[in-house]
Amino acid sequence: MSLRGKVCLVTGATRGIGHGIALQLGEAGATVYITGRTLTQPPGEETVGSCLTDTAKEVEARGGKCIPVQCDHSKDEDVEELFQRVKTEQNGQLDILVNNAYSAVTAIMKNMGVPYWEQPMNMWDTVNNVGLRNHYLCAVHAARLMVPRKQGLIVNISSVGGLRYLFNVPYGIGKEACDRMATDCAMELKKHCVAFVSLWPGIVKTEHMLNFSDNIEENHMEKLAGPNAPVKVDAKIMKNSIARGETPEFSGKCIVHLAQDPNIMKKSGYVLMTAELGEEYGIKDIDGRTIPSFRQLNQFPGVPGIRWLPNWVRLPMWVMAMGGRKF
Known about the structure:
There is one protein chain. Helices cover about 40% and strands about 10% of the residues. By secondary structure, it is α/β, with parallel strands linked by helices. The chain has a 7-stranded parallel beta sheet, sandwiched between helices. Helix 1 (about 15-25) links the parallel strand 1 and strand 2 (about 30-35). The protein is globular. The mean pLDDT is about 85.
C-alpha cells in the first residue's frame, strides 16, 4: 500500500491502459478518481471494455478508494468541474494525474490506409481534441493544484507514433505533441518540484488490440505503418507480437514506481518506455513476465537472423531520435 494517502486522477479509465493504471494505483492504496463517458452500463448493451462503476468496484477490491466521475473530455466545462470537485473533496490535494483519455480508436481503425486528404475533415479534431488539447487543459488544472503544494506527477500516455508514422497523420502529430508537452511543461514546473513525463507503452493487450488481432488481415500491416515502413510485417507476426504484448496493468505498475522514486525530478521532461522502467525498477508484468524493450534488436519483427542476439544489444537512443527525420 505504498501510495496510501495519495490522490490520483486517471482520465479515460473504463477500459484499456487507463483501466489497468487505475487498478494498480488502487492496489497501491491510493484514492483514485477515474473518468469516462459511461458511468453505468445500459441494460442489454454490449460495448468493448466496462463502465466506470465496474472499474471502481475492481479498484476497491484491490484495496484502494475509487471515485468514478462521468466526464466528456471534449467539453471544457466538464473538465473544469472535474478538477473543482477534486479540489473541494481533497482539500486541494492531487498527487498524480494520468492523461490517458482518447476517443479516436474507432475512427482511426475505420480509416486505416486512407490518405489524410481523403479522410473526413473532422479527423484532426476527432483524434486531437481529447487526445491532445484535453491533455493540456488537464495539465493546467493539475498544475494549479500541485504547484502550491510543491509536489506532484503528471503523466501523458503517448506512443512510438510520436517518433515516426503510425496509423495516420493526426495520430502521429498528436503523440509527438504529447511528448513535447511533457518536455516544455517540465521546464516551467521544475522549480516547483512537480514532475511531468511522457510514457510509451509497447504493444498493449487492450480490448481493442485483442479484437484487432482476431480480425487482422494481410493488408492491415501496410495500412498500420505506412507504405514506406522500413520493415514489412505480416499478419502472423503481428498476431504473435500482440499475444506477447504487455498487459494494460504494466503501465500502472510503472507509474506506481515512478511516484515513489525519490529521484523522479531527474526523469521529468523525458519520454520513458514502460519496458525500460520495468528493467530499472525490477518490475514484472502481472502474469510474471519480464517485458522486453522494443529497442532490443532481437525484438524487431520481420527481420530474420537476429533472434539470437543478446538483450543488451539495442538501438541507441540517438538512432531512434534520427527516426523522426526532421533535419
